Amino acid sequence: MQILDTERLVLRPLTRDDVDALTPLHAEPSFWQYPLRRGQTRAETEEFVDRVLESYASVGFGLQAVVERRSGALTGWAGLSIPNFLPEILPAVEVGWRLGSAWRGQGYATEAGAAWVRWGFETRELDRLVSIFEPANTASGRVMAKLGFDLDRITTQPARQIEVHVTALTRGRWLQLCAAGNWPSAPR
Fold first, then answer.
1. 3-state helix/strand/coil string of 94-128
2. Is residue 59 pLDDT above 70, yes or no?
3. Could you tell me the sign of the dihedral formed by the alpha carbons of 36, 39, 43, 44, in that order?
4. pTM of the entire structure?
5. Measuring CA to CA, which residue among 152, 155, 164, 168 is closest to residue 34?
């Protein structure tokens, strides 16, 4: 698995050893406000990590730990995944992120998201990425806009019957934004 470095972050594969640090983050109701409307238990966090590890094995990528370089603290996770929860848009690869409340509002989601977009387009040679959010999650919507994602469609997530906005960014559009200097910094 890859490790991505940004100015302030190290994005590295999650391991079972991360469960202790991830559990208090996952327990914050705001961490899982969208879509669960509640925090997760330790058992749910362990199941989450197991699913991520399975993703590494089955598709070769997945969500990864977001570690603040200065403190070494696990702040949350970000990365690429297959959005199986929204079958109507498949095949697709989604870029996503979640950070603990102490780490929000500092540009970390944009920094991590930018690193994963660059990796997806340059290393995986993907032609298109999506990012999905509930309309009430305006902070994530703003990050997607900063990264150049545009609204692709409004739909309903079938399992929870929740309205979601699917945004998309093509490699061609990303290259245009980079060439024009209108795109956030990414890995060193």
1. EEEEEECHHHCCCCHHHHHHHHHHHHHHHCCCCCE
2. yes
3. positive
4. 0.94
5. 164
Alpha helices in the chain (DSSP H): 19-27, 33-36, 42-59, 108-122, 138-146, 171-179
List the structure tokens of 184.
């956030």
- Say how far apart CA 47 and CA 51 lie, in whole Å: 6
**Quick one: pLDDT band at residue 188, thresholds 50, 70, 90?**
very low
In terms of C-beta density within 10 A (0-12 exposed, 13-18 middle, 19 or more buried), how is residue 46 classed? middle
> 18: helix, coil or strand?
helix
Structure tokens at 103: 């780490």
Torsion from C-alpha of 87, 172, 111, 51, nearest 10 degrees: 30
Mean of the per-residue pLDDT values for the chain?
95
Domains along the chain with CATH numbers: 4-179 (3.40.630.30)
